[in-house]
Amino acid sequence: MAVQLNYTAPKGWKPNPEKYIIVLFKIELADGVPKSRFLDAAASVAAESSTGTWTEVYAGKHSGMGNAKKYRAMVFDVDKKRNMFKVAYPLDLFELGNISGFLAGPAGNIAGMKMLKGLRIMDMRFPKRFVLSFPGPRYGIGGLRKMLGHKGIFAEMPVIGTVPKPKIGRTDVEQALLARQLFLSGDGSYNFIKDDENLTSLKFSNFYRRTVLVLNEIKKAEKRTGHKKLYLANISHSSVDEMLRRSWCIKNNGGRAMMLDIVVTGFAALHTMRLKTGLFIHAHRAMHGFMTRESGSGIHGKGRLQGFSVSMLTLAKIYRLLGVDSLHIGSPKAKMEDYGEAAVIAEAITTNTTPQREGTLGQEWYGTKSVWPVASGGLHPGVLDKVVSVLGHDIIIQMGGGVLGHPDGISAGVEAALQARRAVAQGVSIEKFVKANPYSPLAKAVEKWGYGPKIVY
Ligand code: CAP
Ligand code: MG
What we know:
binds magnesium ion; alpha/beta; 18 helices; 15 strands
């Protein structure tokens, strides 16, 4: 019960999955709020995020109270032991095809309520009509393989590339020189170069000049090597008009892809870019940690919450609906915290029927294209086999320091990465390859970084 209407379903009630959006919440009551008020708190979450408020209001003629009752959200499946419960929101409470409008409900005011000192959106499950009201990815996994002309063993390999490090420093001309070196090293099959998330258009590295220069290098490298390549140019800007101009520059110069910092530019920006450009959208998630990180409870929600957050799993599902083609999801053996969650997120963005796991809700995608999981952050060739064994071979692996920091230089870094990738595709562990090829660039990389992650302090 919340203050005016009943927002709690009778015990055993199950919502029709095609008529309701389900959200799985975990809460922590504020100090001083007795445990006996748990259900009231849950009902208040449902009320504030659907049709209710903190006090009784006029309920007579023309008050809208009939619809408020009809479209109210309902708490069900309460798990008091783990402080978790589900809320079912009638689909007609929301406008189809409008993710911002939707989030203002279940991910809105409730995180500010004084009765709570912790709240986490663990997962969401959407019905068919809602899923199909969004564009979804234009290319997805199959589309990129086709774009890159991957056949034979290349179709079994991860797509690999590099983000220049230092993060910011190279001029636009130097960035193009780096692209040339990456693409012409080894057997010439290196796939992409990518701007870093905080590289924009600067005095010494202008977006437009950089794009033209790097794409020119790609044209030449493709002719020489016979391998198609990508430049994931960072178009992120707080003006959507400027992002559109940048995407047209990419398109007009023969580019196929762009990179978007999807958290800082926002849901509306992503939705608009998906509808207005025909480019492959590589989604970087800079700033997500301020929303998704939850050190107390872990992926399955077993511990006690330490604050307010939305899981990366939830965001990843929303980004798939809006149409990213590839998405940073964290990785095993990375420098960033991922709570072992990457495999669950990868499953949610690559499957058509995402199974329900402990602490998750599952999802039917009704043919929405799959998204490339992107593994990144402190990765180096020595861990490639472990990353692929957890996330599969349809994965984009991004190595910055792990290629550019090779003791024998950048070309050797590319060669080490290519050797690691080929070994993995052939089912050979990195350790076995290194033992058999002790003087190879890969062996040299392993000498420096080993077979495990490097945590940065
Ligand atoms: C990695 C990276 C990526 C992060 C993003 C960086 O560089 O370019 O942005 O990994 O993290 O700036 O740190 P290195 P996530 O390869 O040199 O570590 O994928 O977790 O969102
Ligand atoms: Mg980066």
